[in-house]
Specification:
Layout: H1 2-22, H2 33-52, H3 59-75, H4 77-91, H5 94-110, H6 117-132, H7 152-158, H8 162-165, H9 172-187, H10 198-213, H11 222-244, H12 248-264, H13 276-284, H14 288-313, H15 334-348, H16 361-370, H17 374-399, H18 406-425, H19 429-449, H20 455-489, E1 506-511, E2 514-519, E3 532-533, H21 536-540, E4 542-544, E5 553-555
Parallel strand pairs: 2-3
Antiparallel strand pairs: 1-2, 4-5
Helix pairs in contact: 1-2, 1-3, 2-7, 2-14, 5-9, 6-7, 9-10, 9-11, 10-11, 10-19, 11-12, 11-18, 11-19, 12-13, 12-14, 17-19, 17-20, 18-19
């Protein structure tokens, strides 16, 4: 835990300093600390992605990062000083004591426990590739999961610090939980004074998501980062609308953050629909220069992600076969891509057989429903009730002839667009949990914010009560899980140093004089040897392009 907290302090300082530089072009604009942290995370991730195209992520990558942070901090020292003056009193208060306790709690969960399944399959191994090579062309042939190319693994790799410590830290997910949790708690301080509660309910949604995943805080899982950013963007969008009157700069910043969320996991790409509102404002107000700057920022976030996609897999967007632009020697064959995409679909639908990928909705939906646990069924029922409540509240606003709110229209469009993509592509609840939570919290928040009168308000109140009943088993499930986790892991010896990545049983073979590792049974692609694959069959159908690992892999 001690090492974890030290790593978070280091991450915090670097992110804040980089963030002040990233947002420095927005002169005369003051942001809260969370915006500088988010901007810092985005800036650092993009830097690592670009750096990985040319070199490994080790000491020199850190030298460049720290140098940039120091220069940024010096150039924006007035902003750094203002932030210190603003938040220093909080540290010396009971509120600050509560925040410290929360940080210690998350550090406990980040120090021990079990890794996310996908972390053992490819997250940890992909981070090791960043550290040893930066990028290996066509490595998706060695294991298709490498081609998923979540930018979150770049952020995790830069703060792994294996080159310095001798072992890899995996503390970035816990760091995101701390940042998002403190953001939520800080905003909920004055719940009773707020006239609207949509933002407050979304903050509660962030805390619910932390509860659901806190026992796996040490996993650098791409799902977690994507969902945290999605919830932050939705919450900050509402906070900006109700608190600042739709500050255009904040809207543009959140749109760039939505582009970043798409690079974390491309299935969240429809979140960028929120950009329709600032784009409309920029065109209407003829702010062409400002619009060009924000468009450039979005392209800078997206560019290294697309370049890495091409170099890792030979495809612009893997695993989407419809965009077939390249014919590189390392290109993953289309039949492997299609099979991988089909596997994602059938596993999400709980069919577990690619031969059933073309089953119509009426066939796979009952199978999928039966595979959900009772508390998950209750949660999904609550989401449906939330959708009904949203429709009812919209009808009430139209009946009262209240004006339309374009900022919230595009937000609902983005949230529901992602819910539909989640449901029809791969409806594992964890893949779309942030958007499902957002549906419920937006609806309940709007009910709490509207005046209560008439029959429709009685019906809406009844729906809110039913939603609370439906969510209670979900809440109870994870509260119980946390309690059991604490009881079972309290005596584990990880109060100084964090638990290391799991060590799998690996064997190896030689290709052109290079040793390649593969798992011999359990699905653990060990971080401790490289390069490796979980699946010997994928290794057997691949080979090296040249005589070195750096030359890349191709299909036989």
């Amino acid at each position: 835990m001690a090492v974890i907290i030290l790593s978070w302090i280091y991450m915090f300082l670097i992110c804040i300093l980089i963030g002040t530089g990233v947002l420095g072009f927005a002169q005369n604009k003051r942001f809260s600390m969370v915006y500088y942290l988010v901007a810092g995370i985005i800036g650092i991730t993009v830097y690592v992605e670009f750096f990985s195209l040319f070199a490994k992520i080790g000491m020199w990558a850190h030298v460049g990062l720290v140098a940039a942070a120091l220069v940024s901090g010096y150039c924006n020292r007035s902003t750094v000083w203002r932030l210190w003056q603003t938040y220093r009193p909080v540290l010396c208060s009971w509120e600050g004591f509560f925040y410290c306790c929360f940080v210690l709690l998350i550090a406990f969960f980040t120090s021990r426990g079990e890794f996310h399944t996908d972390t053992n399959i490819y997250h940890a191994a992909a981070i090791r590739i960043y550290e040893e090579y930066g990028l290996v062309k066509g490595i998706g042939n060695l294991q298709l999961h490498y081609a998923y190319n979540s930018s979150y693994l770049a952020f995790a790799a830069i703060f792994s610090l294996k080159w310095l410590l001798g072992s890899s830290l995996h503390t970035t997910t816990g760091f995101l939980e701390v940042v998002m949790g403190l953001y939520a708690f800080h905003g909920l301080r004055e719940f009773g004074r707020h006239r609207e509660h949509i933002t407050d309910m979304l903050r509660i949604g962030i805390l619910l998501y932390i509860l659901v995943n806190v026992t796996r805080s040490m996993s650098p899982a791409t799902d977690y980062a994507t969902m945290f950013f999605a919830l932050f963007i939705v919450t900050a969008w509402c906070e900006n609308y109700f608190g600042k009157g739709s500050d255009l700069t904040v809207c543009c910043l959140l749109t760039v953050a939505a582009v970043f969320a798409a690079t974390l996991k491309f299935s969240s790409c429809l979140l960028v629909l929120i950009g329709l509102y600032p784009a409309w404002r920029l065109v209407r107000e003829k702010k062409w220069k400002q619009g060009g700057i924000w468009l450039f920022c979005g392209c800078m976030v997206l560019c290294p992600f697309l370049v890495r996609n091409y170099l890792l897999s030979g495809w612009l967007l893997y695993p989407f076969e419809k965009i077939d632009l390249f014919h590189a020697p390392w290109k993953i064959p289309v039949e492997y891509l299609v099979h991988d995409a089909d596997q994602i679909k059938v596993w999400g639908r709980c069919l577990y057989d690619v031969e059933k990928v073309d089953w119509p909705l009426y066939r796979w939906l009952p199978v999928w429903w039966e595979h959900q646990f009772r508390y998950e069924k209750m949660f999904l029922g609550g989401v449906l009730l939330g959708a009904a409540l949203q429709l009812l509240m919209t009808g009430m606003r139209l009946h009262r002839k209240q004006k339309l709110r374009p900022q919230l229209i595009v937000l609902h469009l983005a949230v529901w667009g992602n819910v539909l993509v989640w449901f029809f592509v791969a409806p594992f609840i964890r893949y779309g949990l942030a958007f499902l939570i957002a549906v419920v919290m937006l609806a309940v928040g709007e009910y709490l914010s509207e005046r209560k009168q008439g029959l429709c308000s009685i019906v809406a109140g009844s729906l809110v009560f039913c939603i609370l009943v439906s969510l209670s088993p979900y809440w109870d499930q994870y509260v119980t899980e946390v309690g059991v986790f604490v009881k079972q892991n309290l005596r584990e010896p990880y109060y100084i140093v964090q638990k290391d990545y799991d060590r799998g049983n690996m064997d190896s073979c030689e290709i052109n004089g290079n040793r390649i590792y593969f798992s011999t049974g359990e699905e653990i692609n060990s971080y401790h040897v490289f390069p490796g694959t979980c699946y010997k069959a994928m290794l057997e159908r691949s080979t090296l392009i040249g005589d070195r690992i750096e030359d890349g892999f191709r299909a036989k």
